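Hi all, long-time lurker, first post. I run a small reading group and we've been trying to get comfortable going from sequence to structure in the token notation. Rather than ask abstract questions, I figured I'd post a concrete chain and ask someone more experienced to write out its structure so we can walk through it together at our next meeting. Sequence below, copied exactly:
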Amino acid sequence: MELTLDEFERALTDRDSSTHAYLIGKLMRQAKPDDALQFVSPQQIADEWPSIERYLGKSRPFWAWLLEQWERLGYVKNHPDFATSRLRGFAASRDINLTRRRVVGQFHEKL
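-- Answer (accepted) --
Happy to help. Here is the structure in token form:
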């Protein structure tokens, strides 16, 4: 799919477009975060998270973490769909963090 910059920007603002979520996901997946945020706002990402997360590929954990931080700091409003979706995807990473804490705790006990 080839688009001019104007066509791309129009597609990002047209929520009724069949490629809207795909293009946002592709932008977030392939561009540096600072560059992606030139086209979409953190709140827009949070609001549209359920429809764009499937297009993020391996960058999904990073973006989910970043949105969690933005939410914690008050940069984005809590969105019920975002919270449900984020929690569903973070079960594995939560287990990893708990395991890391146990290992670190065991290390400190030996000192």
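A couple of things your group might point at:
The first helix runs from residue 5 to 13.
The chain has seven helices and no strands.
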